[in-house]
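User: For my dataset I need records formatted as: sequence, then structure tokens, nothing else. Please produce one.
Assistant:
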Amino acid sequence: MKILKKIAVLALIVLVILQFFGPEKNEGDIADLQPFLTETNPSASVQATLKVACFDCHSSNTEYPWYSNIEPISYWMNDHVKHGKEELNFSEWSTYSWKRKDHKLEEVIEEIEKGHMPIDSYLWTHSDAELTETQIEEIRDWVKTSRAVMALKKDAPQ
């Protein structure tokens, strides 16, 4: 029993020390989203949905909940955000080639329709990010329109 008590005390000490260290926060400039919003021109409704359901993990500006300051939760959250940005970072939209932009928009629909996005662990604490059928349909229509407009611009003479 003494060994178990020592392990518990040691674990508590480690957890307390961890509170003084944490990963770098993803707190870039929200203005970095402007090229994406300008080029794809989402409706106010779609833009609101993207803000609630996508931008925290897929942009350079995450709105962190209070519990993100608790270690080791912050490391877990940081890993999710890092992975999300590796897959798609709307803040870096202007650096993507036309082909990559088109593919990423196609993937947005695929991931949403398959129920892969937003991820379950995000929905546990962000119930407002759960997409309704209407929101999915709005996003689908917006993506189709955006891809068509981008294709026309790509093929237009300069």
